[in-house]
Amino acid sequence: GELVTVNLEDIEEGKLSWTGEDGEAVTVDVSEAESGTVKIESSDGEGFQLTTGAAVTEDRPDWAPVYPGTEPEDLGSMTTDDSVHGSFSLETADSVAEVRDFYAEALKKAGFEVNVNTFSSGGQEGAMINASNDAEHRSVVIMIGREDGENTKAGVTFTEENR
């Protein structure tokens, strides 16, 4: 029920901006959409950036490691003024234990406090790793699973807060 004004010249440049009756302006910038980046920002400076695909590989921090011999898939990240959140998945023929041990050790070496939970039932096995580095305001959660006859799959999510 609110009237907004849109600038059509901005649309040609891959940006959609509008100003509400309260004077608040919002800009959606898809000019870099081919690389997987979309930016949304309001006139008060608040906003975030969503990134998917190959562009996330460049943004993925070193402290969120990729299991050796795998290529991250389903890449995604969101950046705000306060934090960076991201995720990716991977698949390997290696065992759950190998993947679990790699991540637990790599994160410990990077200064994270690591908690590991494992399970095994009815032909399925898995592990969940929760890791945090309070000094750096970082956290990583990794879900690892495997069903009989299938490859091991892992989902990695990471967060870094700007304080």
Topology order in helix (H) and strand (E) letters: EHEEEEHEEHEEEE
- How many beta-strand segments? 11
**Class per helix and strand makeup:** alpha+beta
Distance between termini? 37 Å
Low-confidence stretches: none
Give a verbal description of the structure.
The chain is of the alpha+beta class and 163 residues long. It is built from three helices and eleven strands, in the order βαββββαββαββββ. The chain has helices spanning 8-12, 54-59, 96-109; strands at 5-6, 15-19, 25-29, 37-42, 47-52, 73-80, 83-92, 113-121, 124-133, 138-147, 152-161. The protein has an eleven-stranded antiparallel sheet. The chain is elongated, with a radius of gyration of 20 Å. The protein starts with a strand and ends with a strand. The model has no long low-confidence stretch (mean pLDDT 82).
Give structural attributes:
163 residues; alpha+beta; eleven-stranded antiparallel sheet; 3 helices; 11 strands
Question: What topology emerges from the helices and strands here?
Answer:
Blueprint: E1 5-6, H1 8-12, E2 15-19, E3 25-29, E4 37-42, E5 47-52, H2 54-59, E6 73-80, E7 83-92, H3 96-109, E8 113-121, E9 124-133, E10 138-147, E11 152-161
Antiparallel strand pairs: 1-2, 2-3, 3-4, 4-5, 5-6, 6-7, 7-11, 8-9, 9-10, 10-11
